[in-house]
Amino acid sequence: MVYHSIAKQRVNQSYFLQWWHGKGRADVREGMLTGEEQLRMVGVPLVIVRRLAVWSLRSYLSFSSSRRFDSKAKVWWLAGVVKESYWRYRTKRDENASRPQGVR
């Protein structure tokens, strides 16, 4: 068995939730949602919005604290996906708006 020292600030819920949020954003940057033709609302696939709603309810309605935290971590991951998807949409929209019409 190997033991690693872990900084105290990394052994709390807020650190893990921030890590999952960052992972959601990184997953979008790595192309998690590319190549999928989906209905989108301001750049965010509607299936992701639905999953966010479902996991939010699960995090509130879970009786077990471990299941509640697992659901909460998934909510934070999905929030990262939503945030990055929106920012990519907004950036692309702003770039297209700054170009002269007729130029792609």
Could you list some keywords that capture this structure?
104 residues, mainly alpha, two-stranded antiparallel ribbon, 64% helix
Characterise the protein shown here:
This protein has 104 residues and is mainly alpha-helical. It has one domain (13-29, 39-94). Helices cover 64% and strands 4% of the residues. The chain has helices at residues 13-29, 46-61, 65-98, and strands spanning 40-41, 44-45. The protein has a two-stranded antiparallel ribbon. The longest helix has 34 residues, at 65-98. The model has no long low-confidence stretch (mean pLDDT 87).
Give a concise summary.
By secondary structure, the protein is mostly helical. It contains 3 helices and 2 strands, in the order αββαα.
